[in-house]
Design a protein that fits this description.
By secondary structure, the chain is of the alpha+beta class. Among the domains are: about 80 residues, no CATH class; about 210 residues, no CATH class. Helix content is about 45%, strand content about 15%. It has twelve helices and eight strands. Strands 3, 4, 5, 6, 7 and 8 form a six-stranded mixed β-sheet that branches. A two-stranded antiparallel ribbon has the order 1-2. Helix 8 crosses helix 10. The model has no long low-confidence stretch (mean pLDDT about 90).
Length: about 425
């Protein structure tokens, strides 16, 4: 298929029948950009015969097996088959252990702190070698080695179907150790690897710390406030399990007792697991490969830790930026709301003043009308009459209600 994958691929029953019998399902799936499972389902649904098992082996040997005819279907909806190809799969890069390490891992970072650290690393000459002896070990590494050797002397329970690996129990020795699970023959190698990894990580700026917890403590490497844990595990080969006489007897006696299907035998290959923070989220795995062992990939392991810190720092920066923008937006909304509240208050005050002015004008008109009626009736002949007093009171009330009275008095020179 080309880089521009079509949205759909439509074939008639006859076309799919011819192609199914012209190439294997795996090869046809690659050509159409779908899975061989999808081809099998389509053949079953549209009643298209498929080559039986061993058909292509016979063809490769020069035979010409007969193929069944295509059944006739008159339903017009069953005459065409449409597939929806997915995007082309990208090939995974080879595992570090399967490369010769001739190409250095790029020190490309996004966060400011990690960019500066990367430049310092490029300008310095760091040693990525693993120690060749067990002398001058880090105290925690030495404690882990003693715990592993003590575990080798003890009788251990190995769960059926699980590899027989040593594990330094923090409960037995009363102190937290490194997470190393290996067979007795790989203890020295794992200890040297742990020593070299811690020393290389400290050389680029990591701090080696311990988290003490009442339930489960652990050690970790920290850089710019971000924690990275690591473990070293020996891999195993899977071989068919041969049930013992006791397992067969227990299986016949108890329905819940079943011997394991496989035995997992340690094979001497080590793998380093990197975990994010205290959540034990796996972020990288680097193991012995066909070309190199993990001791030769200390730089790749440290760079993987640095890149995880870089991702965390950049994520933290983005989160802070989002929080800052959210706070700024909330502050802007608060100011807008305060401005709207002040404007509404001013509007309410203006409306109240207008209503008071209209009331004062109504009172003055009413006073003038009342004064005219009283004058015609002769009620204003006596200046000391109650009518005069009432008219003065109404005028004072109108002036007190009128919000413009103060302005009028300020502009009136006689007042």
């Amino acid at each position: 298929m080309s880089d521009l994958t079509p949205l759909t691929v439509t074939l008639t029953r006859e076309q799919l029948y011819d192609r199914v019998w012209s190439a294997s399902a795996v090869q046809l799936a690659k050509e159409l950009g779908i899975s061989d499972v999808a081809i099998g389902k389509a053949c079953k649904r549209y009643q298209i015969p498929k080559p039986p098992a061993g058909y292509w082996a016979k063809v490769a040997n020069g035979a010409s097996p007969t193929r069944p005819p295509l059944p006739v279907i008159v339903d017009p909806k069953m005459q065409q088959i449409t597939f929806w190809p997915g995007p082309p799969r990208t090939e995974r890069p080879p595992a570090p252990g399967n490369t010769d390490g001739s190409t250095d891992v790029e020190l490309e970072f996004v966060s400011t702190n990690m960019k500066e650290l990367g430049e310092r690393m490029k300008a310095s000459s760091l040693s990525w070698a693993v120690p060749t002896s067990l002398q001058s070990l880090h105290p925690v590494v030495e404690l882990t080695m003693e715990a592993l050797k003590q575990s080798a002397k003890e009788k251990r329970y190995v769960r059926p179907g699980k590899p027989d690996l040593l594990y330094p129990s923090s409960t037995r020795i009363g102190r937290n150790t490194l997470d190393i699970r290996v067979a007795p023959g790989s203890v020295d190698r794992a200890i040297k690897l742990a020593q070299g990894l811690i020393r290389a990580a400290q050389a680029v700026g990591f701090s080696f710390k311990e988290q003490k917890d009442s339930y489960r403590g652990y050690h970790y490497l920290e850089l710019f406030g971000h924690q990275i844990q690591f473990s070293i595990v020996e891999l195993s080969n899977r071989e068919p399990h041969v049930p013992t006489a006791k397992e067969l007897a227990d299986s016949a006696k108890y329905s819940y007792s079943k011997p394991p299907k496989w035995d997992h035998l340690p094979n001497g290959m080590l793998r380093v697991n990197l975990f994010q923070g205290n959540l034990r989220t796996n972020v990288a795995e680097i193991a012995d490969g066909k070309v190199r062992r993990v001791e030769q990939m200390i730089r790749e392991i440290v760079v993987a830790m640095l890149k995880e810190v870089d991702v965390a720092l950049e994520g933290r920066r983005v989160q802070w930026e989002e929080q800052r923008h959210a706070m700024e937006a909330a502050d802007a909304r608060r100011r807008e709301e305060e401005q709207r509240r002040l404007e509404q208050k001013e509007l309410d005050d203006l409306v109240a003043q207008a209503e008071r002015w209209e009331l004062s004008e109504r009172l003055r008109r009413y006073r003038a009308e009342a004064e005219e009626v009283a004058r015609k009736a002769g009620a204003l002949d006596d200046p000391s009459s109650k009518m005069h007093a009432w008219l003065r009171w109404v005028a004072n009330v109108a002036d007190r209600v009128d919000p413009l009275s103060a302005l009028k008095k300020r502009d009136d020179p006689a007042s």
